[in-house]
Design goal:
It comes from Microctonus aethiopoides. GO terms for molecular function: arginine-tRNA ligase activity; ATP binding. It holds the Pfam family DALR_1. Keywords: Aminoacyl-tRNA synthetase, ATP-binding, Coiled coil, Cytoplasm, Ligase, Nucleotide-binding, Protein biosynthesis. The chain folds into 4 domains: 196 residues, Gyrase A, domain 2 (2-Layer Sandwich); 158 residues, Rossmann fold; 84 residues, no CATH class; 190 residues, Orthogonal Bundle (Isoleucyl-tRNA Synthetase, Domain 1). It contains 24 helices and 16 strands. The strands form 5 sheets. The chain has a 5-stranded parallel sheet, with helices on both faces. Helix 7 links the parallel strand 5 and strand 6. The protein has 680 residues and is of the alpha/beta class. Bound molecules: arginine.
Length: 680
């Protein structure tokens, strides 16, 4: 295939943009018929609406395509590259799925120009005998054609599609099987180019995506209350989502929406005034805020005079009286220090921007909502309805006592994130119990004109954490589990596990410590991330510390094994680097090729996660790499030694394949927030 040159990219981008324009016109025509249905029945209308949706989807795919072409074009200005010439490839790793979608869409359009929005179905093949990917469009296309009066067998449709597929550097061969499946076999040379350029760069580049400004709202514990396992889930999931989006090149703002404002502060402050009257001069030792909170709550419930004083404190806090603010700061600081300890241990970066931050914006948004006549009176409170059909309950914007609520602060917050932070996408990571709240916020923000078609809002819910008895996660004595203690227990158990295997005798103290931490925190994170987040999840140290199956321990072991190979072969990093210039990765053996194909899936795994924000497929992918690597290593000699243990032969092509595996594997660990070690 000839190298596509600069003009070619330009031309292809123009063509694709043309297609977008045509699709947009089609949508406009549909809108007209939708708005003036005339005689059309509801069924036709629904069909139009459905088609409209599909066209929009097609536009989205084309837009991404145009963007990638433009990017290539601009890269071309400095050096001419093409998909077949990945040695000089731009800094993005190619998504095979996107490439195949594009090829097949074009082929089908060419074969059947009259079919609007043809179904392009591409799946991974689960048996390499039937190719690496499969296109299953022929069957639905044949049905579609039949419904329009043209009878063609699916096999004939498949043949016609294949005839129209343009030559591509990705595809080795195409075969038609069964009723009309098109089996696609990938080209080794293409894989080789991608993996070699990755080795040359010493890192794996992300696939190309449109850069966005994204707020990820996660962790978000509440001051003076314990940071519980639910917040731990939010912290782990939110951090991993942020890591993924950052890796993909987005501009991510990580925010913890602390519960640091509200009426409970009245009783906390009133209690502080009694307990530590000197609090303005010296910092009171309220290190155990939990019990401090409990004491003040008890007094609040039992002592009328105290209750009154607590309410007074709330009023004073709201009018920012200096002494009261000082007390509030003290309490928040104590909490924050506790949260910090957890973040530090788990290596989490997040900015505290709690409810208190939105104080002044709340007044403003209320005024705006009022001016737009969006607030309704309801038994003394002010409420706002979203889409009544969707949600069925309103937001409470002002309580009957004049106070603001969680709803009020979230309305102010979303406005700030859109207008001031200029975010294109806001992601909230909280337990599933808050789904309704975020649905309401979304629908009210749309009604108020704050959230428009330009921004996206996603709630990323997750299920509850249960103990091994499948009941709410508690200590044996029934208390809520303190996170610091949970992490400590993880460390102890990880150390015991290492000792059981006699590793304490093999590793230096420093190595043992690093291994202990990597295992403990890695396991806790991985156990959380590897489950479908919608399901409730059972916290079990025994299961997460198992070194068999899909666990962090198993994966970390695989990585150390991978890394030990170069050591066994006595190769320095410099020698491997030099080999990249002279040697090609070996992809001849069936198991080498299998491993390489798993590695090539990396960009597609990430793009899918970016769409639906489910992280467990990344864990499954890590496991897949692990298994493919083990199969390869069991079947393919990399280093041959003689009886005396001296190296007699090193298969450098295989060492390079191992190196590429390590690079991708480590990048996955990084996105999952799991630290790796050289030895464990
Ligand atoms: N602090 C809340 C909680 O503990 C979570 C806050 C989530 N973010 C938000 N913008 N409402 O449940």
């Amino acid at each position: 295939m000839a190298l596509p040159n600069l003009q070619d990219f330009q031309f292809r981008a123009d063509l694709a943009e043309n297609e977008i324009e045509i699709l947009k016109k089609k949508i406009d025509c549909m809108k007209v018929s939708i708005q003036s249905p005339g005689e059309s029945s509801t069924i036709e209308l629904n069909q139009l609406l459905q088609e409209n949706g599909k066209l929009k989807h097609q536009i989205a795919i084309l837009k991404r395509y145009v963007e990638s072409l433009r990017k290539k074009e601009s890269n071309n200005k400095s050096s001419v590259t093409s998909v077949s010439d990945t040695n000089k490839m731009d800094s993005h790793t190619i998504s095979i799925y996107d490439q195949l979608m594009e090829l097949l869409l074009k082929a089908i359009n060419k074969a059947y120009p009259d079919v609007v929005d043809p179904p392009v179905i591409i799946t991974l093949s689960n048996n390499s005998k039937f190719g690496d990917y499969q296109c299953n469009s022929a069957m639905p296309l044949s049905k579609l054609l039949a419904s329009k009066g043209t009878k063609v067998s699916p096999r004939d449709v498949a043949n016609k599609i294949v005839e129209n597929i343009a030559e591509s550097p990705i595809i080795e061969k195409l075969e038609i099987a069964g009723p009309g499946f098109i089996n696609i076999f990938l080209k080794r040379e293409f894989a080789l180019n991608i993996l070699m350029s990755l080795l040359k760069a010493g890192k794996v580049s992300p696939p190309s995506v449109k850069k966005q400004r994204i707020v990820v709202d996660f962790s978000s514990p509440n001051v003076a209350k314990e940071m519980h396992v639910g917040h731990l889930r939010s912290t782990i999931i939110g951090d991993s989502i942020s890591r993924l989006l950052e890796y993909l090149g987005h501009d991510v703002l990580r925010l913890s929406h602390l519960g640091d404002w509200g009426t409970q502060f009245g009783m906390l402050i009133a209690h502080l005034q009694d307990k530590f009257p000197n609090y303005l001069v010296t910092s009171p030792p309220i290190s155990d805020l939990q019990s401090f909170y409990k004491e003040s709550k008890k007094r609040f419930d039992e002592d009328e005079a105290f209750k009154k004083r607590a309410y007074d404190c709330v009023v004073k806090l709201q009018s920012h009286e200096p002494d009261i603010m000082k007390a509030w700061h003290l309490i928040c600081d104590v909490s924050r220090k506790e949260f910090e300890k957890i973040y530090e241990r788990l290596d989490i970066k997040v900015i505290d921007r709690g409810e208190s931050f939105y104080q002044k914006y709340m007044e403003q948004i209320i005024k705006e909502l009022d001016e737009k006549n969006l607030l309704e009176e309801d038994e003394g409170r002010k409420i706002m309805w979203g889409d009544k059909k969707d949600v069925g309950i309103p937001l409470t914007i002002i309580k009957s006592d004049g106070g603001f609520t969680y709803d009020t602060s979230d309305m102010a917050c979303i406005q700030h994130r859109i207008n001031v932070e200029k975010s294109d996408w806001i992601i909230y990571v909280t337990d599933a119990g808050q789904s309704m709240h975020f649905q309401l916020i979304e629908s009210c923000a749309k009604r108020a004109g704050i959230l428009t078609d330009k921004q996206k809002l996603s709630h990323v819910p997750f299920g509850v954490v249960l103990g091994e008895d499948k009941k709410k996660f508690k200590t044996r004595s029934g208390d809520t589990i303190k996170l610091v203690e949970l992490l400590d227990e993880g460390l102890n158990r990880a150390l015991n596990k290492l000792k059981e295997k006699g590793r304490d005798k093999e590793l230096t103290e420093e190595e043992l410590n690093a291994a202990k931490e990597a295992i403990a925190y890695g396991c806790i994170k991985y156990a959380d991330l590897s489950h479908n987040r919608n399901h409730e999840y059972i916290f079990s140290f025994d299961k997460m510390l198992d070194d068999k199956g899909n666990t962090a321990v198993y994966l970390l072991y695989t990585l150390t094994r991978i890394r030990s190979i170069a050591r066994i072969a006595n190769l320095t990093p410099e020698q491997i680097k030099a080999a990249v210039e002279t040697t090609s990765i070996s992809l001849e053996h069936e198991k080498e090729w299998k491993l390489a194909k798993v590695l090539l899936k990396f960009p597609d795994v990430l793009l899918k996660i970016m769409k639906d924000l489910y992280l467990h497929p990344l864990c499954e992918y890590c496991y897949e790499i692990s298994c493919a690597f083990s199969e390869f290593y069991d079947n393919c000699y990399c280093v041959e030694k003689n009886k005396n243990g001296e190296t007699i032969k090193v298969n450098m092509g295989r060492i390079l394949l191992i190196e590429a595996t390590a690079i991708i594997f480590e990048q996955c660990f990084d996105i999952l927030g799991i630290k790796t070690v050289n030895r464990m």
